[in-house]
């Protein structure tokens, strides 16, 4: 005969066992996996270094070659009247001095690496430099004829716009509220100027960021990154079965 006390002990044991098994299942459940799950690959730094080298070469030509430096900058007159559209790209690689060059390269390196490693050649360098050229085009439209535009800042702000948009969509380890908080923190730290310089094209910065966001939305609309995200999660699910 089983007493009431023994029945109670057995019932409590079963409940404790169920709790332990439930906690074990929670511990063994894999974390959500997506495009941004792993660290960026070191080998993807190489292509960024190639484009940084191009910036150095173009800038050196601009500084020291009187024969070719006038072929690198862009202005409203050269683009809209003479239709020298290649200047929209050559101006991106050209910088006025070493300080100008060094101010753009750190963010160019970091976000170029992240975009290429996670989102491939389409995001960087292809989309990045299209965004930079569009930013130059839009900026020069509002500038007077005598203003000459050079520098990679349009690309840099475009890279940040691309990355932030992709991050909000494809980062799966944080809640949307937390992602917004992180994005706002990074944006205020990296994008807002701390000083004013009359030789800086803040308009190019704004257009670069805007076109970066729009370009990221366009790429996302194709579904190629959503498919990659689903494939990564499906592979994880198969491994854990």
Question: How would you sum up this structure, described in words?
Answer:
With 241 residues, this protein is an all-alpha fold. The chain has one domain: Rhomboid-like (Rhomboid-like fold), CATH 1.20.1540. Helices cover 71% and strands 2% of the residues. The protein contains 10 helices and 2 strands; from the N terminus they run ααβααααβαααα. The chain has a two-stranded antiparallel ribbon. Helix 7 (153-170) packs antiparallel against helix 8. The two termini are 43 Å apart.
What's this model, at a glance?
The chain is an all-alpha fold and 241 residues long. Helix content is 71%, strand content 2%.
